Amino acid sequence: MDSPLTSFLQNEIQAKKDKGLYNEVDILSSENGPIIKINDRELINLASNNYLGLATNPALKEAAIDAINTFGVGAGAVRSINGTMTLHQELETALAEFKGTQAALAFQSGFNCNMGAISAIIDKNDAVLSDALNHASIIDGCRLSGAKIIRYNHSDMEDLRQKAKEAKESQKYNKMMVITDGVFSMDGDVALLPEIVEIAEEFGLMTYVDDAHGSGVMGKGAGTVKHFGLQDKVDIQMGTLSKAVGVIGGYVAGKQLLIDWLKVSARPFLFSTASTPADTAAALTAIKQLKASDQLQTQLWENARYLQKGLKDLGFTLSPTETPITPVIIGDENIAQTFSKRLMEEGVYAKAIVFPTVPLGTGRIRNMPTAAHNKAMLDRAIEVYEKVGKELAIIE
Ligand code: PMP
Fold first, then answer.
1. 185 is catalytic
2. pLDDT tens per residue, range 88-138
3. ipTM of the shown complex
4. Which atom of ligand 1 lies closest to the CA of 184?
5. Residue 217: what pLDDT?
6. Count of H-run helices and E-run strands, the chain
């Protein structure tokens, strides 16, 4: 007889396969740059979060190698024992300056940063108002905190106001927080931060913005909060070092008092080994580059607008994106999967995103142009889109 674990796993895997949710992982035998290699084929890459091309940047590689030579390959301990090196300190100073806050604290990933920071700030006596399309790491951080989770409809400010009012009037909660992505990763739309901050002031909510997709992209690189000039109004700015920054890691930027508290209460800081010297030095070099020049952001936006215009001119429907995230709406989940497969056969790598990540019937191909693409690559991608779009009768 099968062990309980084997039966459980077999059933769960089959259930995922039946729903078309059991994805095989593609394996790269190259850098994750504008051109990638999968199964010995070179493909134009429209699937990474490497917005500025920094994941393959020579200065970052060199900084990582130097850091390995000076500090070794591992930090050797958690941050709160003796895993904190001068590199971590320099990165945090650079992040605070970059974000325009008093201080910052780096974590090993964006995911564990949200888990650690949210659960260090709110608890079971509190309530958190959370946008319905917030990232999984926010949802998990909120669940872990034990606070009452009150979901408001995506970017629906009337719903947020109403729910904030009810929560306040109930007098059930010690503290209340509103939490949102700065840029929503599946549609590319931007949170209505000025309205969110106003509602937060009216009902006494703390404010937390996860700017994983806005940092390095919006507000001349400093992010969505800076884009709206709200640095003094948002209490907690969270970001990742894995997307535009090109490396790995997460961080919180805010008041010194906030950072002092997280250092003694955020569990990934206390109980998980510090990020490696190589990652930390590479991220530090990236932040210095972003502060020194906005040339990469300019290139990113130029490429994004070029691709978006090319696809729209062909007759494709894009989501109402306000950022380089470029989702082409296909509708039917199976057609979206076939579309992505055909793109790959024609030399373009872009992922189909389907239910439950996005609502049923809104299957899409999510394209991620970067600063590292050149016009020839984008032109070729647009040509392939035209061919596959006509073949599958998505465009005429
Ligand atoms: N927040 C958002 C909005 C994200 O999109 C992601 C990455 N998918 C994360 C947090 C987690 O960041 P990381 O990949 O650095 O763990």
1. yes
2. 999 999 999 999 999 999 999 999 999 999 999 999 999 999 999 999 999
3. 0.99
4. 3
5. 97
6. 14, 14
Q: What is the number of the ligand 1 atom nearest to the C-alpha of 241? A: 15
pLDDT surpasses 90 at 359: no
CA distance 4 to 22: 21
pLDDT at 357: 85
Cis status of the peptide bond prior to 324, with omega within 30 of 0: no
State how far the alpha carbon of 215 is from the alpha carbons of 114, 136, 273, 286, in Å.
15, 18, 25, 12
Ligand 1 pocket member 214 (CB < 6 A): no
| pLDDT > 70 fraction of the chain, expressed in percent and rounded | 100
Which residues, 6+ apart, have CB-to-CB distance to 333 below 8 Å?
Answer: 20, 352, 354, 355, 360, 361, 363
The ranges assigned to domains in the chain are 19-48+294-391, 56-292
What pLDDT score was predicted for residue 355?
Answer: 86
Residue nearest to atom 14 of ligand 1 (CA): 110
Residue type, 242: S
Structure tokens at 141: 């951080």
Catalogue the E-assigned strands of the chain.
35-38, 41-45, 103-107, 127-131, 148-152, 176-181, 206-210, 236-240, 250-254, 317-318, 326-331, 348-349, 351-353, 363-367
CA–CA distances in Å: residue 142 to residues 115, 122, 136, 165, 264: 8, 8, 10, 20, 19
Active site residue 227: no
The answer to whether residue 213 is catalytic is yes
pLDDT at 338 over 90: yes
Pair 155, 193: CB distance under 8 Å: no
Q: From the CB of 185, is ligand 1 less than 6 Å away?
A: yes
Q: What is the residue-averaged pLDDT of the chain?
A: 97
> Which CATH topology does 56-292 take?
Aspartate Aminotransferase; domain 2 (3.40.640)
Binned at pLDDT 50, 70 and 90, residue 178 comes out as very high
Give the CATH superfamily of 19-48+294-391: Aspartate Aminotransferase, domain 1 (3.90.1150.10)
pLDDT digits (tens, 9 = 90+) for 230-249: 999 999 999 999 999 999 99
Which residue do the tokens 């959370």 mark? 130
Q: Rounded to an integer, what distance in angstroms lies between the CA atom of residue 262 and that of residue 253?
A: 11
Cα(243) to ligand 1 centroid in Å equals 8
Determine if ligand 1 sits within 6 Å of the CB of residue 48: no
